[in-house]
Write a structure and sequence with these properties.
- This protein is α/β, with parallel strands linked by helices.
- 29% of the residues lie in helices and 19% in strands.
- The protein is built from eleven helices and eleven strands.
- The strands form two sheets. A seven-stranded mixed sheet has the order 7-2-1-8-9-11-10, with helices on both faces.
- Strand 8, helix 8 and strand 9 form a beta-alpha-beta unit.
- Belongs to the class I-like SAM-binding methyltransferase superfamily. TrmB family.
- It is found in: Nucleus.
- Pathway: tRNA modification; N(7)-methylguanine-tRNA biosynthesis.
- It comes from Stereocaulon virgatum.
- Catalyzes the formation of N(7)-methylguanine at position 46 (m7G46) in tRNA.
Length: 379
């Protein structure tokens, strides 16, 4: 499988000439998250800034929906591409901190993420940005907007004096150290856990405060893509054994008629395929607004792999109640990740928003893949 057309920003620069030889161009990292039946891409877009170090793939069988998500991702990449050159205008004889290497403190500056109090209030945003330009004495400020064109944050390098002056500016909700590890006053960071990609990264070597340089230079939404595919038939064709860390099954078709139950996305056969592509310790997240379907999926995952006197290959994971996901931020990395991702599937998917508007219920379950069991005859 050649993934380079789907994640061009993650093509391995040392192997790009392999395309000229008729070979697939490898990526710098594999796809580790799959959203099966991604719909209109709401979850993909929400996960991209939360997990910038992981490649996320949406799988959708409907042609027109797939094309819509492809266009949506392409537009987001274009709108949020970082400029090649950041033009600045400063006072005479005053050096620009942006001319220094990232993280340099030779001028006494540090980089901060400044969040507005209301990303949709354009008059207030304009007034706040004018204050930022006046205080920092620069003409252009890098900013990020989400898919609804709401301003998410400004990115600025500030001296201690500028930081202190910004504390009283109207329209600013928070000012956070972009290094993540500490806040501007060197106390433990108060950034909500669901904004810390380092806490959500399950792989070894990606501890708190670490970032791959690609996430700084490539811009957001480069780590998500969508592929038209029939997952029920071809899932193992796209992923190797144990490649994925997370699988999402969000609001699948309930197929109410008994004769159509075989078409449901969760069955004993498909549980075997999910277990094949999911690494030990990886999780499957399921959500539906149909109680009977929620019980169906729970029963299949709980029963899969059980043998006499043993346990199944999937264990159920405790999840937070709806609206209380933020309370899981201090429970540790794994619990934090579960809380954040459960919040996303409840609130960020198009179907989840629809159920909320209609006052419906959401039935969520999370299943962690256990290690492969030993052979029965092994001592």
């Amino acid at each position: 499988m050649d993934w380079s057309p789907y994640y061009p920003a993650f093509m391995d620069p040392k192997a790009q000439n392999t395309a000229l030889k008729g070979k697939a161009t490898p990526l710098t990292k594999p796809v580790t998250i799959a959203d099966i039946g991604c719909g209109f891409g709401g979850l993909l877009v929400a996960l991209s800034p939360l997990l910038p170090e992981e490649l996320i793939l949406g799988l959708e069988i409907r042609t027109q929906v797939t094309e819509y998500v492809q266009d949506r991702i392409s537009a987001l990449r274009s709108q949020n591409s970082p400029p090649a050159i950041i033009s600045t205008q400063r006072a005479p004889n005053q050096p620009s901190p942006l001319s220094q290497p990232y993280g340099s403190d030779s001028l006494g500056t540090k980089q901060y993420v400044i969040s507005p109090s209301d990303g949709h209030n354009e008059p207030q945003l304009a007034a706040t940005e004018a204050s930022l330009k006046r205080i920092t004495n620069i003409d252009k400020i890098k900013s990020w907007r989400d898919s609804d064109n709401a301003l998410e944050s400004w990115l600025l390098e500030l001296t201690d004096a500028q930081l202190q002056e910004l504390q009283g500016v109207d329209g600013i909700d928070s000012i956070e150290d972009n290094d993540i590890t500490t806040s501007p006053d060197d106390s433990p960071s108060t950034v909500p856990a669901y904004t810390l990609a380092s806490l959500l990264e399950p792989n070894a070597g990606m501890g708190k405060g670490t970032h791959n340089s690609s996430s700084r230079t490539q811009g957001p939404y480069q780590n998500i893509s969508v592929l038209r595919a029939n997952t029920m038939k071809f899932l193992p064709n796209f992923f190797t054994r144990g490649q994925l860390s997370t699988i999402f099954l969000c609001f699948p078709d309930p197929h109410f008629k008994a004769r159509k139950h075989k078409a449901r996305i969760v069955s004993a056969t498909l549980c075997a395929e999910y277990a094949y592509v999911l690494r030990p310790g990886g999780c499957v997240y399921t959500i539906t607004d149909v109680e009977e379907l929620g019980k169906w999926m729970r029963d299949r995952f709980e029963a899969f792999g059980k043998y006499a006197g043993g346990v199944g290959l999937f264990e159920r994971v405790e999840i937070p109640e709806e609206g209380r996901e933020g309370e899981w931020e201090g429970r540790g990395r794994e619990e934090c990740r579960v809380g954040v991702l459960v919040r996303c599937i409840r609130e960020e998917t198009e179907e989840g928003k629809k159920v909320t508007r209609n006052g419906g219920r959401k039935f969520v379950s999370v299943w962690r893949r256990r290690d492969d069991p030993g052979w029965p005859d092994d001592a």
